[in-house]
Design a protein that fits this description.
Largest sheet: 6 strands, mixed
Order of helices and strands: EEHEEEEEEEHEEHEHEHEHH
Structural class: alpha/beta
Number of domains: 3
Distance between the termini: 42 Å
Strand order of the largest sheet: 10-11-9-12-13-14
CATH superfamily of the largest domain: P-loop containing nucleotide triphosphate hydrolases
Oligomer: single chain
CATH architecture of the largest domain: 3-Layer(aba) Sandwich
Bound molecules: guanosine-5'-triphosphate, magnesium ion
CATH class of the largest domain: Alpha Beta
CATH topology of the largest domain: Rossmann fold
Length: 385
């Protein structure tokens, strides 16, 4: 039996769940003192939730991460009331918390088309301001993607994801012997003896072609993006959607699930992942499990089982592979321990990364006070270590 010891360590990737940007409202337009004309107000900068957006897309499209709205028009004889400057709308993903530089929450975008004003345009010049306009508001904004859970359950239909969630938490998801029982994410929490909680999202089953929107398709895959880690759940005896579709062994389901994630978004492959092999109470399960582990150790030797375009560029490297039975409870404690270990390890690495960054900032700010020639000399020394 492969226990927690079956560790295939991998580096944690950097799934993008936050972005810092600069926003500036447009300046107001000049007033017209002689005729009492008012300049137009500057445009405002908004963030607007859009379904198909991701923080990565924003960063790739606008590497400078600078968003400035249009200026208000000056008042003139032909148009005494100057026109308002153009607003700037930044499309952001749904499920974002918007905070300012001090960490104060400005608002949340929970559904499509929700919008928040992040930088107000300046006022146009008028009588009160002696016809002088004001500048637009400047602001550093943080966008944080709210994760729906620490762990997302990924698997073909009927693998036993909902059964597993009901085993490890107090959640009561629907469980049934047909595909697509779960139609939207269900959340549960694993409680540990030291009161630590790890949230788990039971997600709708995935089928081949999900990246092309088959089955629950994108809806399902979008949820996977919003979990810290993935727990693949596969039926040790394999899966067949219907008599018209191919039977897939447990190994094939792992490979095909990986391929679907890769085709949807390669970044998903960077998330720390674990594998729970379910239904170990079934006859022959132990032999099938050993076969699966062997296949996962040498995936290349089994590439003949797939069409070329079904093979993922990289095989998923699981941190732990745990045989379980959601029905009898076998392996469930082990699984809970492995999940805890993996989540703790990830937060330690995140903390470490954060401290290193802080130290580097501190180091650089100290160096900026010394003679520039010394600065380079010192940098070399630091790099030698
Ligand atoms: N023998 C056995 N059956 C199980 C086990 N876990 C789940 N099942 C059965 O498998 C069937 C599917 O279980 P679900 O938990 O609904 O599966 P799911 O992965 O949530 O399915 P979808 O919501 O359709 O994606 C049900 O009939 C369960 O009773 C197990 O460990 N052993
Ligand atoms: Mg389910």
């Amino acid at each position: 039996m492969v226990r927690c010891g079956c560790l295939l360590l991998r580096k944690y990737g950097n799934f993008m769940d936050n972005l810092r940007l600069f926003a500036k409202g447009g300046a107001g337009g000049m007033g017209y003192p002689r005729l009492g004309g008012e300049g137009g107000n500057g445009g405002d900068v908004w963030v607007v939730a859009k379904k198909r957006m991701s923080l990565k897309k924003i960063k790739d499209k606008y590497p400078q991460k600078r968003f400035v709205a249009g200026g208000g028009a000056n008042s003139r004889i032909s148009a005494l009331k100057g026109e308002k400057g153009l607003d700037y709308e930044i499309s952001v993903p749904v499920g974002i918390t918007v905070t300012d530089e001090r960490g104060q929450i400005i608002g949340e975008l929970n559904k499509e088309d929700d919008r928040i004003l992040i930088a107000k345009g300046g006022l146009g010049g008028n009588l009160l301001s002696n016809f002088l306009p004001s500048k637009g508001q400047k602001r550093i904004i943080h966008l944080d993607l709210k994760l729906i859970a620490d762990i997302g359950l990924v698997g073909f239909p009927n693998a036993g994801k909902s059964s597993l969630l009901s085993r490890v938490s107090h959640a009561k998801p629907e469980i049934a012997d047909y595909a697509f029982t779960t139609l939207k994410p269900q959340l549960g929490k694993i409680m540990y003896e030291d009161f630590k909680q790890v949230s788990v999202a039971d997600l709708p089953g995935l089928i081949e072609g999900a990246h092309m929107n088959k089955g629950m398709g994108h809806k399902f895959l979008k949820h996977i993006e919003r979990t810290k880690q993935l727990l693949f759940v596969v039926d040790v005896s394999g899966f067949q959607l219907s008599s018209e579709t191919k039977f897939r062994s447990a190994f094939e389901t792992v490979i095909l699930l990986t391929k679907e994630l890769e085709l949807y978004k390669e970044d998903l492959m960077k998330k720390p992942s674990l594998l729970a092999v379910n239904k170990m109470d079934l006859p022959d399960a132990k032999d099938k499990f050993s076969e699966l582990v062997n296949q996962l150790r040498n995936p290349k030797d089994f590439s003949h089982l797939f069409e070329k375009d079904e093979i993922p560029g990289k095989t998923m490297e699981f941190q732990h592979i745990i045989p379980i039975s959601a029905q009898t409870g076998e392996g469930i404690e082990e699984l809970k321990n492995c999940l805890r270990l993996s989540i703790d390890e990830q937060s330690n690495q995140d903390n470490e990364k954060f401290s290193k960054k802080q130290l580097l900032n501190l180091h650089n700010s100290k160096l900026s006070h010394v003679d520039p020639s010394l600065k380079y000399a010192r940098m070399e020394i630091t790099e030698c270590h």
